[in-house]
Amino acid sequence: MKKQGGFTLLEMLAALLLMALCSTVLLVAFGQSARSLLQVTHSDRLSHAALSVMDQEASGPLANGVRQGELDGIAWQLRIAQQPGRLGQPHLFRLDLTVSEGPRSAQFSTLKLRGASL
Question: Are 93 and 80 in contact (CB under 8 A)?
Answer without folding.
Answer: yes
